[in-house]
């Protein structure tokens, strides 16, 4: 069986240049520059890390139809081969990447499914994604508190404007 590992890096660096009127006590532009970078995160997950990546990543590119599209986590297309369905039963969510296409005409909503709901963003919670919006969520150094995928917790609902596109990559393990 194949092995899966994940390298994760997110850098957020903010710089603000204050004017002389905003900070008159500073004698130069350099003295009026403020930088923030404390939100940077990097990490690597593998079969021996916490959380452990134990199965291949799932990936689904959805063109929204007239109704709700349901993603079944017991038959998720594999990132390596969309024709290969992955069964995440007994596994817990450890990472997700969602990308709403910038050409979309409206918001895409991702929510627990109507039947056998999987609480991707918590029980009963949904999240809207504007055109072009991307979201990454990754657990590093702590075990997943998400529920394990099962027959009663396996479906994610995707809805929005017909013909809009959203991509989801999901990582599961323990």
Q: Would you give an account of this structure?
A:
Strands 5-14-9-12 form a four-stranded antiparallel sheet, with no helix packed on it. Strands 6-13-10-11 form a four-stranded antiparallel sheet, with no helix packed on it. The protein has a two-stranded antiparallel ribbon with strand order 1-4. The two termini are 17 Å apart. It is mainly β and 174 residues long. It is built from no helices and 14 strands. A hairpin with a 7-residue loop joins strand 7 and strand 8. It is globular and about 65 Å long.
Strand and helix layout:
Layout: E1 6-10, E2 14-17, E3 33-36, E4 41-45, E5 58-63, E6 69-72, E7 76-77, E8 85-86, E9 92-100, E10 108-112, E11 127-129, E12 134-138, E13 155-160, E14 165-173
Antiparallel strand pairs: 1-4, 2-3, 5-14, 6-13, 7-8, 9-12, 9-14, 10-11, 10-13
Note the main attributes of this structure.
single chain, 174 residues, mainly beta, 4-stranded antiparallel beta sheet, 14 strands, 0% helix, globular
Please give the oligomerization state of what you see: single chain
Please outline the major beta sheet.
4 strands, antiparallel
The number of distinct helices, counting runs of at least 4 residues, comes to 0
What fraction, in percent, of the residue positions are helical? under 10%
Which structural class is indicated by helix and strand composition? Answer: mainly beta
Taking Cα atoms only, what radius of gyration do you get, to the nearest Å? Answer: 20 Å
**What is the CA–CA distance across the termini?**
17 Å
Please report which band the strand proportion falls in: under 5%, 5-15%, 15-25%, 25-35%, 35-45% or over 45%: 35-45%
The averaged pLDDT comes out at 91
Low-confidence residue ranges: none
Shape, please? globular
How do the helices and strands follow one another from N- to C-terminus?
Answer: EEEEEEEEEEEEEE
List how many beta strands DSSP finds. Answer: 14
Strand order across the largest sheet: 5-14-9-12
């Amino acid at each position: 069986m194949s092995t899966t590992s994940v390298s994760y890096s997110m850098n957020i660096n903010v710089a603000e240049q204050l004017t002389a009127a905003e900070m008159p006590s500073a004698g130069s532009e350099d003295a009026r520059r403020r930088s923030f970078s404390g939100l940077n995160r990097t990490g690597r997950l593998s079969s021996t890390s916490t959380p452990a990546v134990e199965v291949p990543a799932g990936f689904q590119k959805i063109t929204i139809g007239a109704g709700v599209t349901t993603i079944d986590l017991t038959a998720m297309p594999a990132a390596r081969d969309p024709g290969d369905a992955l069964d995440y039963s007994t596994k817990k969510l450890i990472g997700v990447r969602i990308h709403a296409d910038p050409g979309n005409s409206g918001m895409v909503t991702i929510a627990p499914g109507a039947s056998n709901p999987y609480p991707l963003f918590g029980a009963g919670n949904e999240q809207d994604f504007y055109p072009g919006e991307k979201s990454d969520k990754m657990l590093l150094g702590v075990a997943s508190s998400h529920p394990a995928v099962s027959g009663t917790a396996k479906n994610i609902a995707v809805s929005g404007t017909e013909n809009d596109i959203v991509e989801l990559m999901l990582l599961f393990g323990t």
